[in-house]
Amino acid sequence: MPRPLLLWMLCAALALAPAEAQAVRVKKVAARAMKAKRIGRLPRVRIKAALRRRPARTPRLRDRMRRTLPRADHRGGIRQITGRDLALGQTDFSYRAPADPFVDVLPDGRVQVYGTFENYLEFASLDDFLRGGDFKVERIPAHESFADEASWDQLIHRWPDGSEVLYGGMMTATEGRERPRWPADNWNRRIYAFTRDGDGNWVRRKVPLFNPVAEGATPSMIGHAYGHHFKTVTRRVKGKTVSETWLFHEEIVAENPLRTEIFARKMLDPFTASRHKVKILGTEWEGQPIGQRTGGDLLVEGPRPFAATLGGEEYSFVSFSSGDFNSDNYGIHFAWRKGSGIGPHAPYVDRAGGAVTLRDFAADIKKRYGLSWVGRAHVIQDSGGRYWAVFHGVDKAIRPEVDYTRPNGELGSFQRNIYAVPMQIRLGKGGVPEIALLPDPRATGE
Predict the structure, then answer these.
(1) H helical segments located in 100-232
(2) Residue ranges of the domains in the chain?
(3) 3-state secondary structure of 29
(4) Cβ atoms < 10 Å from Cβ of 127
(5) Between 3-16 and 44-53, two packed helices, what is the crossing angle to 10 degrees?
(6) What is the pTM of this model?
(7) What is the pLDDT of residue 56?
(8) Phi, psi dihedrals of residue 93, rounded to the nearest 5°
(9) Which residues, other chains included, contact 419 with Cβ-Cβ below 8 Å and sequence gap of 6+?
(10) Tens digits of residue pLDDT in 203-234
(11) 22-35 and 3-16 helices, crossing angle to 10°
């Protein structure tokens, strides 16, 4: 074989190989040719020079994500559920994927994903959902009481009597307007229940679950609430086993600066939460502020409780997010406590140079896959018992010209895609549970 042709073949192999495999590929090609006595006295220095001249082509961000998709088993790392068909520079979308995703497994096995915006997604099964399979986009059947604004953080809850109720955070019109207006009416946003009418449309109840706003009240952000999630707690009361439903939610408790903290309230019925609230997590830890936003406000939001049995004992967790939702300064955080989930939780934090900051469990995912606006994880379990974190995020590769380090007000020109990543929860030293998100397929093996 002519030496120029052999060298060309060698360079072509280098151009196609990923960086970590180039050296191995060079050795294999050279060894194969030497064995066949076709390489003659081709100087090794020319092979090394070819390696230097042909740096590996870095896979595009979207290609790196796509490589995790084909594996159908549940040990394959991160999955991109929506947004794989987005085009570079796209700012208009045929539908809005539900941000703040809530994964609802129906009694017949179908999966519906609710959240913020007027649509929900439907998958044939949980397996289909977790492998990023095909789905239908359905519009939430809404009565005019939904107004012109999509409800925030929508979810379906099934009560013991079999009834289904939809819950969401909505504004109420003021100043004589027929419809609420953003941002003028955002101060009175509350969590409402919705029930179906005779046509199957969701109709908003007149009174929120808690913190009703009096007619003619002076605008104030105190009491503002939207994100929510239910948790069933079983405990012994006077020798009897009692099952209670609690609502985890965030709520603004102070102005100038705004402080949004996480609480839980016992549900008295499907439409009423107790006035008494239990603080789950505040905006200060170890004497230092946490959840800082641009402008000085403090926020922890979007609580979704879940539990795990570790070492034969129950541990309660809450996933939440903090910071500016429309920037890199948003993440996936967790807090925990041993035993019942009703009470203060300890957040996972990092300490450096005397500062205490919330640990962003999605930091590596954001860096590796070029994602921003990452947060609002809903932790679920698959049929095999493995935990998954389902979250939303924006693919920076779609609009690479944007500065994602600061909040972006063009909310309608970004699509928050849905992703799912396996989790590991285990008992660490001193009885402190350890949590890890496992985006790498190799990291999910037992």
Answers:
(1) 126-130
(2) 3-53
(3) helix
(4) 17
(5) 40
(6) 0.83
(7) 43
(8) -135, 145
(9) 78, 79, 80, 81, 365, 371, 390, 391, 392, 393
(10) 999 999 999 999 899 999 999 999 999 999 98
(11) 150
